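Hey L., structure's done. Input below.
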Amino acid sequence: MKIAIIGYGKMGKVIEKLALDNNHEVCLKVTSANKNFSAEELKNCDVAIEFSTPQSAKDNILKCFEANIPVVVGTTGWYDDFEEVRQICEEKKQRLFYASNFSIGMNIFFQLAEFAAKIMEQYPEYDIEIEEVHHTEKKDAPSGTAITLAQKIMKHISRKTSWTPESPKPNEIYIDSARIKDVPGTHTIVFSSEIDDIHLTHQAHNRLGFASGALKAAEWVIHQPPGVYTMEEMMNFSHFFK
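Output:
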C-alpha cells in the first residue's frame, strides 16, 4: 500500500515507521516545508493519512478527494466544517475515514462510556465531568477525544445536553483540560455523588496506539465503497450491541 503522510510531526513520524515496518511504502510526506502541496502529488498514492493542524485539515481532505484517493483524518478541531466536507465527499463519491482518536483501546473506552451512561440515566444524584491531560504541543483544548466522550454520554443521559470548559450549569458536562509535557493522552470520566465517586480512565502510554489504529483504518478503508466512515464501522461494534 502506498501511503501519503500529511503532517510530519511526531505522530507522522511514528506512522511512517509503523507503515514501513509493515511493508507499506510512503509515497509522499507533507511537512511544513511543502504544506502547499498539490492534489497531483497524491495521485500515485493509494491512501492518505492526515495528522496536520485544524487550520489546514479541510483543504488537505479536499485535495485527497480531488486526487481520488481515500483519506484517514486524525486531526481534530476542524469539525465545524464537517458537514460541508461530508457533502462534498458524497457528491464526489470519495472515501473519508475520520476519528477523534484512532486508538483501539480508546474506542473500546467510548463504548464503555456509553454503557455506563445508560446506567447513570437512572441515577440523577450522580453528576458527570471529564478530565483530559495531553502534551503541551496539543493544539486544541478540550481535546477532540474528550468532546467525543461528552457527546457519547449525552446520547444516553437526558439531564445533560451540552458540554463546557467553563463553570458548568446543571445541564452541562464539565470538561477539564490540562497540558503537561510528554503526556500522550489521559482521559477520565468522573461520576460523582455525595456518597461516592466512580472513575473510568483510559491512559495512553505512547503514540503507538494512535498510529497503529490509523494504519489499520487506512488498510481497511481502501477496500470500502465510497462513504464516510468511523472506528465504529471498522471495529464492528454493532455486532456486540444488538
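The CA atoms of residues 132 and 143 lie 7 Å apart. The radius of gyration is 19 Å.

-- N.
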